[in-house]
Structure formats: C-alpha cells, structure tokens
Write a structure and sequence with these properties.
The chain has ten helices and four strands. It has about 190 residues and is mainly α. It is globular and about 55 Å long.
Length: about 190
C-alpha cells in the first residue's frame, strides 16, 4: 500500500472539496490498471460539493451518513472514470466523523498517552455510545474533544503514535464503519 495526501499547490490536507479530490482520483486510476484505489476522508472536513453531502446531512444516524457518502462518492467516481474500471478498483471511505474518532477505541491507552483521567475519556464514550458516533459539530468533533482533554494532543504526531499503540484490531472492534472498509480491502482479489 502507498499513501498520498490530496494535492493542492502550497497545501496538504484540509480543504476537502470533491472538485479537488477528483483530479487526484482520476490521476491515480489512470496510472496502473492492476492497482486499486481507496480514499480515506474525514466527514468533518468535507465541503458541500462532495457527492451525497446534502443528502447525508438529512440523516441523523452515523451509519446512514456514511452509507450515503460512500455510495454517492463511488457512483460519481464511476460516472467520471468508469473507463478506468473504477467500479472494481475504487473503494471510498468517509470516516465518521474524523480519523481521531478511532483513537477512542481504547480509552485506557488514549488516557495514558494524553496523561488525562480515564473517566474523562470514558465519559465521552458513554455519552456517544461508540467512537464513530462522536459528533462533527464544531466544538464536539473528536479532534476538538481531544484538544480539550489535553494540550499535548497534536494530530500529526500524538494522534499517529496513539493509533499505533491502540492497533488496528481494537479500532476494528470498536468502529463498525472502519471495520467494513478494512474488510473490503482485505478481500481484494488480484
């Protein structure tokens, strides 16, 4: 697997517009016919031009939001790049609601790495029910909650280290949408 960040001159990440992503999606699908392409996008950062965005906002359940977003993304990519076998080779994944939600998959490790009280992390999980339900509203998104818990949290350093410590198996066990995506990737046939 090779990862890449959506490109924009002078900027990496953020500004998640479909008009911006489609250029990279098309470029990657055209490179090698024997490869697959997947996309991990945070729902929180998506702009209104993203396929399925308006419909997803009418859904109150996170699983429904994810389903709408992933299906609309897949459909739009197939409309644009069907001649590149995108139906078979493209697997979208819109993370509910941010990648940082996955870090709540192990409250003990998260609390330990941030040097915060375990009960503060558990209280967030208790209110939300599961990591992928931690909301996308401006002050209660997963990354915002982590920043409130600890000023030690830095997305690109602390977040990666915590994710490594927790491990993918715990994330899969706590996050059904994430698990579904990983399962699709594992089941790819050459």
């Amino acid at each position: 697997m090779t990862s890449t960040i959506l490109t924009k001159p002078g900027q990496n990440g953020g500004d998640v517009r479909f008009s911006r992503a489609q250029n990279d999606i098309g470029r990657h699908l055209k490179q090698r016919k024997e490869t697959w392409l997947t996309l991990l996008i945070d729902y929180c950062g998506i702009k209104s031009d993203w396929p399925g965005y308006q419909e997803s906002k009418r859904n109150t359940q996170h699983m429904s939001k994810a389903r709408v977003m992933n299906e609309a993304t897949r459909k739009r990519v197939n409309e644009l790049f069907g001649d590149q076998d995108s139906e078979r080779r493209f697997i979208p994944y819109v993370s509910m609601f941010e990648f940082e939600a996955l870090l709540f998959s192990d409250a003990e490790i998260l609390a330990q790495k941030l040097n915060v009280r375990l009960r503060d992390v558990e209280k967030i999980l208790s209110r939300c029910g599961e990591p992928e339900k931690i909301n996308d509203k401006s002050q209660i998104a997963p990354s915002k909650r982590l920043a409130v818990l600890s000023d030690r949290f830095k997305k690109t350093v602390t977040g990666i280290n915590i994710a490594r410590e927790i491990g993918i198996d715990k994330m899969r066990g706590s996050c059904p949408i994430f698990n579904e995506w990983i399962t699709k990737l594992e089941n790819l046939k050459h």
